[in-house]
Amino acid sequence: MGKLGDLTGKALGAPLRALIPKNPWLRLAVIALPVLIIASFLEPVLSLLGKGVDLITGTLTPLLDNAVGRLVLLNLIVVGVAVGAWYALRERWRKLRSGLVLRHHLAGVASLLGDERARTRELFRKVATTKCPPPAEFPHASEDAKIKLARLALEDGESDEALAWLTLVKEKKLPRELQRSLVQLRARALVQQGEVLPESVEKEVRTGLDRFARDPRLLELLRRQLLDRGALEEAARVQGELVQAASPRSEPAERQRWIDDLVRAGDAALAAGDARRAMKLAKQARDLGESVAAGCLVGNVRLAEGRVRDAIREWGSTRSTEGLGRIAEVLEQEPGAVSPRELLECCPTEGALLLAARDLARRGQQDQALRAARRAARTLGPTPTVTAVLSEILGLCGRDGEAAQLADEAVLRLVAPERQSQGG
Amino acid sequence: MILPPTHALQAAGEAAGSGWWSAVRTLAAEPALVEFLLILGVLIVLLAVNLRLSRLVRDAQSRVAVRDYLLGTEQALSGDLKGASTRLKKVLDQDPENHHARLLYGEVLAELGEPAEAHKQHLFLQKAFAVDSLRNDLNLTRELLDAGRAGEAVDAARRGAERSPDDREALRMLFAAELAAGFPEAAGRTGVRLLRVLDQDAERARVRARAAAAFALAGTVRWEGGELDAAEALCVEAEALDGSEPDVQRLRARLVFAREGKEALLGHVGTVPQLAAEGDDGAAAAPLVPVLADGTAAASLVPAVAVAASRVAALVPATPYRCPTCGGPRALDEPHCPHCGLSNRAVPVEPALMAGLESPGAVIDEVEANRAHVRRQLALALEGDSTSFDDLVAIGGAAVEEIFASACRSVDPAPAHVELLRRMGPSALPAMFQAYARLKERHVRNLSRLLHGGGRGTGVLGKVVQGFGRDAQPYFEQLLETSDRDLRKVLLDYYIGLGDENELHRVLEHFPPVEILHRLNAAERDPLVRLLQTVAGEGFFASGLLVDPSFRREREMLLAVPDAADPDALIEVLARRGYSPHLAVCLIDGLSDERLAAAAGGLLDRLGPAAVDHMLSAFADLDRPASARERLKARLAAMGASLVEKVCALLGPAASSLDKDLHDLLVLLGPDGSPGLASAYRRGSLLEKIGGRFGGAFVNRYNHRRVCIIKALAAVGGHAELLRLRAEESDNNLKLRLAQALHTEPQARVADGDDATAGEPRSEEPRGQAG
Q: CA-CA distance, A267 to A277, in Å (whole number)?
């Protein structure tokens, strides 16, 4: 109740306090003025005042009559003026010094934004090490300067220096914005320094995240720590949170990284023999957007399950060089693993037709191989891959001369002007 | 309001006894002075309060602005973009001239995905506040690149690079902008400048490669424009940076080709160091293994290829994907290009590899060359598609059965069927025989079309084999003993098509003549003509088969005459065959052909009177060519007066275009024809005969036919006949005509024939007796 009463009193008195000057003498004068005015209407007071005046004149008059007295009076006046001046200028001097600090800080920020690193460091260092009182406008200038110095040091790779500056920051009553920076930079400096145990760093980051949930920088640091530790799935989960927290501009890149993390985790799960887990991760990655790696992972899982056709279908659906490469590897290891018809049904692309042609040639079905190769060449033109595969097919069919001729023609076409080579 | 009482003041004044107090009392005694002073005091207090409040608010705002600015800056640096945006916007509302806040605010907006608004803020700084800042220029460059305005981005980046020529970031942005804008030569030069200030090896390597590729691209443009020297200079600059870059190697190869030719090019490509290394390593070199931007090798589409193919690989990018804007190599899933910095999706270097097949089933059908594919190709080939046609030819025997089946299905087998099978050559004959046998086993409908076109003519198979030469003879010699009547027909067709009488004799050793005759009658015209042209006078073919009455191909015999090895023998065969209406018609038709006219005329003469009716009929056929009719007229005129009555029989009851030709013919037959003319005059027309049978009194004797005869008589000088006819004539009009003819000079009478129709009766309509 007492607290409530204090608060009420403070609230009611706040306007008055705001209006009354900060100078105590002036404040006294302002408070005393109405009292004096009212008192002036009361006779005893007036007579008391008259007597006071009489006392003063009675005291001073004898002093003015002799030299010693006048000297004493003069000294008193000088001391009084000096004391008054000291009282009057003390606040102004304090303001002047704190203003200088603020000026340095603002100049430091301007230099920072103007990419003048040396000057920035110099100015912030002045602010950080000043003994002057903090500016009223921004009392945390010194802490802010230390944080910015730590940031600069980190950008220059000087993590020890950064940690030193961060250690000097007084956290008490620090604004939340600066606290966030402090936590971020401290975690980053610890990571960058590399001598602190990973567990400590991770704990530091997690503590920071407890205070500033979904902070992108902290999440990024945590992800790295988890990746270093080999906790791939958890890293992917953290990356998922990071995507939610990322800025619109960086969101696509972060989302892609999330997909990559999921695929990496899926690969690890597959390598560990947990196909179901791998499939779950792969599907999760694929649901996030078009991803070749995710599609290839699904295919890898299918292959691990022994479903070659499904694997080829998945690889083919990526419509990518990587997918075709995986199909090529399977056919390389096991020619005829699928028939050309099945291959094209699973992966209906021109590249798959080339693979089918090569597979046919390896299985000795030369007529069909040549027909498939010709058909592909007709559609694709003399691209390097086509040329390479055709050369191989011709070689397998015992037509080395034609293969060499084909390569020569391809070289000639490649050095022809673009329009001609495209048209040709 | 409480006023001081007067007596109090007085008492105070007395007590003080001083002058100042008296003065105060005196003043206070003045009316309304105290009130005035109080009001003044209140006003002063109010004014002071107002001033104080204003100052307080101003101070507070200033403090808040500074705090917002500094905390907003820190928020921006720590990644708290929304908070930074709110604070900095507040700062700008209070202090629009805070350039640093505006600069940072624009950057925050760009990060928040509002590049247009960010660009506006940075443009304000540049234009409205004339802020000359490298960071602002770089921000503008980035935003313009994001907005896809690479040209303007280059301008902004150049401003920044001019201000700070050695600034790494400025050069990076300029390099990226020039790559994105398609200024390869400028990008190459900026790349060289950037290399001087870079210190990280990885980035140096990347920039070196891209700068080399940019120089190579610029050189390629010059090379395409024919500026070989300029291209060479750029190529040298590119090689100085990174000679292993595929674009550089390609430019070098192009220059070698342009200056030294094909052989030098192939030699050069074979000696490129990178390629030589791959070649030495053979298949294990795997030259087409795609390399991603991060340096890792992707799965290879072509794990092992021949050495020859690696020569090609050196001239193309080794990575499977590239940036669609600057062409730099990159990974597929990278959202931003590492070279030009643009946000776009990487495209494959060989996009066609990923292109989908419209119909995979159709493609594999094509690979397998199965029935479905043959059917599709056949349908296209019959519509005139040459590619499909060639494909079917390449398929060869496997396509024969479907082509046969298609020929059986079609009402009139297209020439394309025949041409297709012919193009397959004799090697497809076994397949054709097998296909025929299979179709026969399946009792395919209309199989006869294969053999004799649905009727008794040459079928598809026959036409096909007639297109083969002696190469196919071994296949047919095996069939000489066959008893399959259809195959025998095909065999005969083949020998007919060979066009060699001597080869045909071999068939005669195995086949009865009548079977051959039947096949000859069914044969196509051209092969038969070719065969007939080889006829010699002494052979069994000429003396046995061709004179047989059952052989009906006189027209082809006549056609064969001009180019025959022995024309007289052929003419003699025709003559020996004697008159037949068909032959007469063929010969008369032959008169229309310059090359055949002489032979046809001679044979017509040899046919004699039997052919006269055909000749007259042909002469009266106005649709026949004029030259042919002239020849016929000459032949008919040579036959003399015996033709007169037959010619008169051609005259019609009314005037026609034929009248003049008949009149001329009658005149050519001469005065000896006068009795014949008179006889024809007396006989009357067919209408008169019919009309007489049903009461001839109603049929007028005065008709066009008699008028023409009178004119012909007058023209050939038949006075005596005219006189007799006039004496016999009962019709007054005819009498008048006869009298008129008698008084006309022969020359004038001939001329009168031109306007013979003037004043003559229009028709033989019954109109009662004249007079």
A: 10
- Which of B260, B245, B252, B212 lies closest to B231 in space, CA to CA? B252
Q: Which of A352, A372, A392 sits opposite B305 (nearest CB)?
A: A392
pLDDT given for residue B451 in this prediction = 65
**Taking CB atoms and an 8 Å limit, are A380 and B350 in contact across chains?**
yes
Q: Give the mutation candidate from A321, A327, A349, A399 for the B interface (greatest B CB count, under 10 A).
A: A321
In terms of pLDDT, which residue wins out, B62 or B273?
Answer: B62
Other beta carbons less than 10 A from residue A171's beta carbon: 10
Give mean pLDDT, residues A280-295.
88
Cβ within 8 Å, pair B79-A217: yes
Nearest alpha carbon to residue A407 among A423, A391, A389? A391
Cβ distance A383 to B113 less than 8 Å, yes or no, reads no
pLDDT of residue A161: 93
Instruction: Report residue B506's pLDDT band, with 50, 70 and 90 as the boundaries.
Output: confident
Determine the Cα–Cα distance for residues B369 and B391; give it in Å rounded to an integer. 9
Which candidate in A251, A415, A419, A421 is best for mutational testing of the B interface (most B CBs within 10 A)? A415
- The confidence score (pLDDT) of residue B687 equals 67
**Chain A residue nearest residue B48, CA to CA:** A19
Q: Which residues contact B596 (CB under 8 A, 6 or more apart)?
A: B558, B559, B561, B562, B590
Interchain proximity A356–B366, CB inside 8 Å: no
Q: Which of B206, B207, B234, B239 has the alpha carbon at shortest distance from B222? A: B234
B578/B119 Cα distance (integer angstroms):
105
Mark yes or no for CB contact A380/B353 under 8 Å. Answer: yes
Cα separation of A36 and A26, whole Å?
15
Specify the 3-state DSSP secondary structure of B317: coil
Closest CB to B257 among A141, A292, A415: A415
Q: What is the pLDDT of residue B277?
A: 35
Using CA coordinates, name the residue in chain A closest to B1: A38
Q: What is the CA radius of gyration of chain B?
A: 57
Reference B251, options B270, B274, B268; nearest CA is B268
**Cα distances (angstroms) measured from residue B552 to each of B513, B519, B592:** 14, 11, 21
Distance CA A308, CA A300 (A): 9
Q: Which range has the top average pLDDT, A24-38, A250-264, B2-16?
A: A250-264
CA dist B348 → A24, B331, B345, B364, B573 (Å): 79, 9, 10, 25, 77
CB neighbours of residue B523 within 10 Å = 24
Report pLDDT for B449.
64
Question: 3-state SS of chain A: helix, strand, coil percent to 5?
Answer: 80, 0, 20
pLDDT score of A167 more than 70: yes
Alpha-helix residue ranges (DSSP H) falling in A318-363: 321-333, 340-346, 350-362
pLDDT of B398:
82
Read off the amino acid at residue B546.
Answer: L
Which pLDDT does position B313 carry in this prediction?
A: 56
Residues A210 and A237: beta-carbon distance below 8 Å: no
- Non-local (6+) Cβ contacts of B102 within 8 A are B88, B92, B96, B121, B124, B125, B129
Across the interface, do B306 and A360 touch by the CB < 8 Å criterion?
no
| pLDDT above 90: residue B85 | yes
Complex prediction ipTM: 0.77
CA-nearest residue to A387 within chain B is B309
Inter-chain touch A18–B361, beta carbons under 8 Å: no
Q: Look-up: residue for tokens 């390569």?
A: A407
Q: Quick one: which of B744, B756, B692 has its CA closest to B718? A: B744
Are B597 and B624 a contacting pair, CB within 8 Å? no
Most confident stretch, B15-29, B50-64, B85-99, B321-335: B85-99
The pTM assigned to this predicted structure is 0.64
**pLDDT exceeds cutoff 80 at B748:** no
